[in-house]
Amino acid sequence: MRRAAEVYFAFDELGTTWAREIAAGFTTFLTMAYIIFVNPSILADAGMPAAAVMTATCLSAGFTSILMGAVARYPVAMAPGMGLNAYFTYGVVKGMGVSWQVALGAVFLSGALFLVLTALGVRRWIVESIPRPLYAAVAAGIGLFIALIGMKNAGIVVASPATALTLGNLRTPAVALAAVTLLVTAALLVRSVRAAILIGVVGAVIGANVFGLAQGGGAAVAAPLWMQLDIAGALRLGLVEIVFAFLFVDLFDNLGTLLAVAQRAKLIGADGSIPRINRILAADSVATMAGSLLGTSTVVSYIESAAGVAAGGRSGVVAIVTGLLFFASIFVTPLVGAIPAAATAPALILVGVLMMSHAAAIDWDDLSHAIPAFLTMAAIPYTFSIANGLSLGFIAYAVLKVLTGRGREVSWFVYVLSAVLLARFCYLGSG
Questions:
Q1: I want to staple 11 with a disulfide (CB 3.0 to 4.6 A). Which of 6, 61, 63, 299 is the partner?
Q2: Among candidates 126, 77, 88, which has minimal Cα distance to 274?
Q3: Which residues of the chain have pLDDT under 70?
Q4: Is 324 in a helix, a strand, or coil?
Q5: Distance from C-alpha of 61 to C-alpha of 294, rounded to nearest angstrom
Q6: Which residue, among 378, 389, 372, has the nearest Cα to 356 in the 3D structure?
Q7: Is 166 helix (H, G, I), strand (E, B) or coil?
Q8: How far, CA to CA in Å, does 326 sit from each of 3, 57, 77, 96, 332?
Q9: Would you state the pLDDT for residue 272?
Q10: Which alpha helices (H) appear in 93-223, and where do they start and end?
């Protein structure tokens, strides 16, 4: 049985082991466990019971991560997406006066539409049409994005009305913990300790609890909001704009995450193809539908999966282990609550360092590649959106090729998609 599993997950081909995959699964879980508490706090503002949403968050993350790992065999974990949960609450429910049940119905419809587009091959065309320079740019840009999130979570950078961001108070205990963890983990990485990131996170969690920096006490277990969505209501209201918004952001955030993680794990073929792409996209579609049925906003692939890859993970076992830990978290939420952001922030910063290496694959001497790649890399952290960065890169790439007389180097689908993305930006800027 064990050998059969190793063959199925291609352990020999990927050069990995059970110990490495399990350690990577723990690493991924520790870096994204915050969603168990953050997601309910955001959706509670939409009128949804926080305890039920917490259970739905654990169940949806557990089920969909295992689905991705078992079916697509990629080390990509899934959970309700940050950004989309905020749009769900503040843009749809509060901003448009739509009930959360109807909003969940719109999420389900976006997932169903995703599944249809996957079956028709449209989503695969989009993936395969992404220009090669943008593959590396997305990975590097997300590295900057992850590092920014890590620095923000650690308190190393904070918001500033004058300069947008500025240096935080380095004398606070939480920042000191993050700084020490960052340096120790970095030293372990330099010494090629394979489980360096996991050791760093676990050590920081222990330190946080010893010095009283952790906040335990998760909410009591409650039944999820199973089948509380109102699909008929979403159809009656004709929520085309909302469904499109969920669909578009989910599509490009997932594509960006997939490209970054696959690039980091060296799972992209020599011709730029991504093996088992249809399985990945189908699992993503089902994940969104499953999340809405359980009572949470759109489920997406998590860029924190890159932390597990950086820890040595290569196969779907990483995602399966992460999913099992999410299931277990339903019953140990006080323990999960003891993981402070400052403990996992250094892992995110160092993953950002590792992902920046992909920028070396960009031909910086060819400005028709370098400029779109830079715009992609810069816009992802600056706009706090993978979708915006990839969209700007797409448009710039197509326009520059046309203006420099090299338009035939670009497929027709890139032009069509660039026009759609440009129309989206015009619409977003019209408010």
A1: 6
A2: 126
A3: 83, 123, 127-128, 194-195, 214-221, 237-242, 244-245, 248-250, 252-254, 256, 269-273, 333-339, 427-431
A4: helix
A5: 11
A6: 378
A7: strand
A8: 26, 9, 10, 32, 10
A9: 64
A10: 94-96, 100-119, 122-129, 132-154, 173-190, 196-210
Compute the distance between CA of residue 368 and CA of residue 400 in angstroms, rounded to an integer. 6
Q: Is 157 helix (H, G, I), strand (E, B) or coil?
A: strand
Q: How far is CA 336 from CA 29, 194, 328, 359, in A?
A: 10, 24, 10, 35
Token pair, residue 58, equals: 């654990």
Picking from 414, 219, 425, the residue whose alpha carbon sits closest to that of residue 333 is 219
Classify residue 49 by its DSSP letter. Answer: -
The two most distant CA atoms of the chain are separated, in Å, by: 63
Residue 121 zone, left/alpha/beta (φ > 0; ψ -120 to 50; rest): left
Whether the Cβ atoms of residue 391 and residue 262 lie closer than 8 Å to each other: no
Distance, CA of 377 to CA of 135 (rounded, Å) = 11
Q: What is the chain's alpha carbon radius of gyration, rounded to the nearest angstrom?
A: 21
Q: Which residues pair with 301 in a beta bridge?
A: 78
- The answer to whether 380 and 144 are in contact (CB under 8 A) is yes
For residue 325, what are the CA distances in angstroms to 206, 213, 262, 375, 428?
19, 23, 22, 37, 38
401 three-class SS: helix
- How far is 320 from 326, CA to CA, in rounded Å? 10
Which strand (E) or helix (H) includes residue 159? strand 157-160
| pLDDT value at residue 418 | 86
Instruction: Tell me which H or E stretch contains 79.
Output: strand 78-80
Long-range contact list for 416-425, CB < 8 A, 24+ apart?
417/126, 417/129, 418/394, 421/391, 421/394, 421/395, 422/395, 424/248, 424/391, 425/391, 425/395
Handedness of CA 364, 370, 375, 380 (dihedral sign): negative
Q: 106, 96, 103: which is closest to 43 by C-alpha?
A: 103
- The CA-based dihedral angle spanning residues 123, 127, 129, 132, taken in that order and rounded to the nearest 10 degrees: 180
Residue 79 and residue 65 in contact, taking contact as beta carbons nearer than 8 Å: yes
User: How many residues make up the chain in this entry?
Assistant: 431
Q: How far apart are alpha carbons 177 and 343 in whole angstroms?
A: 7
What 3-state DSSP class applies to 228? Answer: coil
Tell which residue, 145, 150, 202, has the closest CA to residue 345: 150
